[in-house]
Request: fold
Amino acid sequence: MVGSLEQVAQAIRAYNKFLITWHVDPDPDCVGSGLALKQALQAMGKDVICVSPDPLGEWFEFLPGIESCAVFTEGFSPHVDAVIVEDCEPDRCGGLVSYLKSGVPIINIDHHGTNLGFGQAFYINPRAAATGEIIYQLLTEYLHVSLTEAMATNLYAALAGDTGTFRYSNTNSRVLAAASELVKHGANPAEIAVHLYENRAYEEVDFLRAALDTLEISPRGEMSWITVTKTMLGERQWSGQRSEDLIKYPRMIKTVKLAIMFRELDAAKTKVSFRSRDNIDASKLAALFGGGGHMHAAGCTIDKPLPEAKAMVLEAAAELLAASPGNGSE
Ligand code: 5GP
Ligand code: MN
Reply:
C-alpha cells in the first residue's frame, strides 16, 4: 500500500474543479468508479467532468450518468484545479498523457500493485479487489457522502467487473460487504449481470468463432493462448470487456495456469493480456515487457509485430512456468 486515503480526501476537499480520467481500453471498474466519484463530488458542490481516453461504446450505456462522459480528442486541455487519475498510473491515459504532464495537480487512486503512486496525493492499495472498493471507502468513510442509487449502481458494476462478479481470487468478505451495502442503496445485481454478460450483439458472439479457432495449448497443458488479428476484428471496436469475453476460454481449461491473449494493434504493435492461477505471477511477466497489473490479471503492449511479440512472450512465459515451484519439468 502506498500513499494515504486521508491525503486524497484532503486534496479533494481543497479543490473545486476536477477532471476525472482512467486507463485506455476502459472497463467497468474504471468507468463505474469514475462516474460514482463524479456524482459524489457533485453532491459535495464541486464542478466535475469525466474524460475517457478511449471511446466507451454502447456496452457501457447502462451506467447511470455515462452520457455526461466526454471522450478525449486532440488538443483537449481543459482548465481545472486538479485531475483525478483512477484505476491506473498517468502513463496509461493514452492521449491525455501530455496534458497530465503539463503540471496540472494530479490525485492518483488505484489498486494495481505495479503503480508506484503519482501526483500530489495518491493512494494505491493492491489489496483492494477493484478501484471501486477504494472509491466506496473514500465516499463512505472519508468524504461522508450519502450514496445514491446511481452511485451504488456504478460502484457495484465496478466491483462486479473486476471480480468476475465475485468469482475471482480477489473476492473476499470486504468486497462482498461493500457489495451488500451497494445493493441496499439500490444497485440491482441481476440487472447489472445481464448488462455485463448477456447483452452482446450477434456479431460479437459470431466473432468468438474466429477467435476460438486460434486457441492453442502448450504440450504439458499448463499454458493456453488465443490470438486476435486486425483482419479478424474488421470494423469492430475493441473495449475492455472483450478481453474478458475471450480470455476466459483459455483460462477455463482445467490444466491451464497461465492464459494469454495476443491482439494485433497495428503492424508493429501487439497487446498482450495475461490471466493466471495459483502461484503464477502474471504481473511479473507483463513487467518484463513494460506492462503491469495484478498477480492474476496483467497486460502489456509490445512494440513488435504480432508473430515476434508472440514468440518472445511464449518463451518468457514457458520460463516463468518452469521456474515456478510445482510447475517445473521435474
Ligand atoms: P487486460 O488484459 O484486461 O487489458 O488487463 C488486465 C490487467 O492488467 C488490468 O488490471 C490492467 O489494468 C492491467 N494492464 C493491462 N495492460 C497493461 C499495461 O500495458 N500496463 C499496465 N501497467 N497494466 C496493464
Ligand atoms: Mn480495476
Q: What stands out?
A: Residues 203-323 form a domain with the Diaminopimelate Epimerase; Chain A, domain 1 fold (CATH 3.10.310.30). DSSP finds twelve helices and 13 strands in the chain.
